[in-house]
């Protein structure tokens, strides 16, 4: 077989390209955990897309179809839930296998899209399409949500806490709570107050447990149940609306109770430490 100059040049080019790939620094090579993190970002972007094309645009054009809008809203929320699943498993995979040097940065950027921008945009659109809502006020509440997520992620990157806890409500949990508050269909003012409260919890110093082991399994199961509730609501299954309302209420209830338990435990720990200090002083 005769090798032409063109074949030789192409072979040399492929060899050089392969050498360049192998010479890439480890910091630019993606791991399996990074791929899951990118899946998180994609879900966040698609949530914004479905909220825009399925809810906002039909409302602005006057072609709003209740069933279609409901389907699009449920799809957007389901994508945010799926993003939280990717966020849950990328951490587990990174601990079991490995993560690239870009892992932490990719995770923060993806979380900002899926759990900052997507739920905040959902609030903005709700403020534009709901009958009793006010667009400018809801936009201001959405800005607080985005800022809370940005501050929380920045603080997470530069502080060190004891193992097994987060400081402030985790952004996936906060995003799902914000969306649940909207889906509860409460009057406008209580809804805005609750959204602002969730934003405050995300930047607070309240400690939340990290989803590991049994808690990770419970978190995953709750996400699947939430998706099923959204599906039942979208398909107009008998009792689907009530099921969705119950799930949203449970999400909001958990968001309110966890800080109470954490604060109570912290106060009890401080009291116990004071008692020990007094006992040691008397000795």
Automatic annotation (TrEMBL):
Gene3D superfamilies, A to Z: 1.20.120.1760
Main localization (coarse): membrane
Transmembrane segments: 35-60, 72-92, 112-130, 137-154, 174-203, 215-235, 247-264
GO molecular function: CDP-diacylglycerol-serine O-phosphatidyltransferase activity
Catalytic reaction list: a CDP-1,2-diacyl-sn-glycerol + L-serine = a 1,2-diacyl-sn-glycero-3-phospho-L-serine + CMP + H(+)
Enzyme class: transferase
A Pfam family: CDP-OH_P_transf
UniProt subcellular location: Endomembrane system; Membrane
Topology relative to the membrane: Multi-pass membrane protein
InterPro entries for the chain: CDP-diaglyc--ser_O-PTrfase (IPR004533), CDP-OH_P_trans (IPR000462), CDP-OH_PTrfase_TM_dom (IPR043130), CDP_ALCOHOL_P_TRANSF_CS (IPR048254)
Annotated EC: 2.7.8.8
Record's keyword annotation contains Transferase: yes
UniProt keyword terms in alphabetical order: Lipid biosynthesis, Lipid metabolism, Membrane, Phospholipid biosynthesis, Phospholipid metabolism, Transferase, Transmembrane, Transmembrane helix
Family: Belongs to the CDP-alcohol phosphatidyltransferase class-I family.
Protein name as catalogued: CDP-diacylglycerol--serine O-phosphatidyltransferase
């Amino acid at each position: 077989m005769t090798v032409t100059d063109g074949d030789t040049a192409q072979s040399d080019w492929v060899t050089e390209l392969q050498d360049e790939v192998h010479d890439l620094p480890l910091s630019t090579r993606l791991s399996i955990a990074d791929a899951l993190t990118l899946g998180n970002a994609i879900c966040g972007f698609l949530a914004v897309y479905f909220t825009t094309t399925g809810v906002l645009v039909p409302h602005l054009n006057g072609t709003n179809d209740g069933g279609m809008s409901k389907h699009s809203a449920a799809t957007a929320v389901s994508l945010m839930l799926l993003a939280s699943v990717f966020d849950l498993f990328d951490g587990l995979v990174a601990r079991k296998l490995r993560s690239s040097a870009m892992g932490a940065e990719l995770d923060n950027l993806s979380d900002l899209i899926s759990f900052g921008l997507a739920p905040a945009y959902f609030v903005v659109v709700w403020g534009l399409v709901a009958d009793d809502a006010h667009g400018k006020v809801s936009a201001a509440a959405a800005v607080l949500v985005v800022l809370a997520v940005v501050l929380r992620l920045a603080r997470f990157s530069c502080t060190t806490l004891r193992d097994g806890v987060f400081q402030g409500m985790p952004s996936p949990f906060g995003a799902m709570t914000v969306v649940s508050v909207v889906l509860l269909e409460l009057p406008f003012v209580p809804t805005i107050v609750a959204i602002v409260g969730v934003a405050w919890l995300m930047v607070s110093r309240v400690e939340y447990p990290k989803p590991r082991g049994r808690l990770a399994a419970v978190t995953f199961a709750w996400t699947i149940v939430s998706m099923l509730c959204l599906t039942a609501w979208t398909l107009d299954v008998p009792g689907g609306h009530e099921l969705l309302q119950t799930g949203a209420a449970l999400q909001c209830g958990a968001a309110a109770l966890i800080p109470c338990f954490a604060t109570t435990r912290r106060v009890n720990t401080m009291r116990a430490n004071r008692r020990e200090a007094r006992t040691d002083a008397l000795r």
